[in-house]
């Protein structure tokens, strides 16, 4: 038997909906519950390990919106086991919606509001908390929220994003970067590697494209030569200390979004000193490095990439899958 409950004004609720529509029904007091209810019930794909996988089509054009109630709402709370599909609005007169315990996120609750019984302005959007689910930021947020539920976003969700981002300073190491780019593309494919000027297209928003790719890749290779942290502008200011330095911004973006960043030390130089690095990239000094000789040739770079694939399984897996598709022997 349903009981009546009150949802007070200024309650924060979450809703997943197509981008073209405003936030509406159904809703949940919890982000995770709203995501599970909207994305999983009729589109679940299970891996042998028991993971639930979200496919690209399920996220395309979807938005996670936050709203606040502007007035008190009266809802009917359904008892566990009660078939909500069998409850019609006319069965619960005087209420503005239904509330029940989520089957996917027990014991949290979710609710459905009857649109024709609610004032038009009963839900006030909170844009700063909302997010698209089909871009790099949205996928990152979704992955973090649903990781405890053994849900992941399929690799295909990254369509259009490369696997590897090459980060480097043009003052030193440019030839080695070109060779790295060439070798990685040979093994992984042209679209799998992002290198600024080669990957940017006419008309691209330079900043948006660089940052989207820096946070969306699996691996960033940060090539660090002798002048990497000793390059200065015309006034004598160190580039690395400036917020607009793109080498620094790319690394900071990758670190902030959980990308695997691998420092590639070029030639004979000392390791990075964390005290000499800006706070947003200080973590770089503690990461395990790879070493590449200065004036490296193709064989030197091939050996480094061999080692990279040995130590970063996601790249080795991508390489093996590409070889299998092309019919090449292991």
Automatic annotation (TrEMBL):
InterPro entries (alphabetical): TIR_dom, Toll_tir_struct_dom_sf
GO biological process: signal transduction
Domain TIR residue range list: 160-312
Signal peptide per UniProt: none
Entry protein name: TIR domain-containing protein
Organism whose genome encodes this protein: Amycolatopsis rhizosphaerae
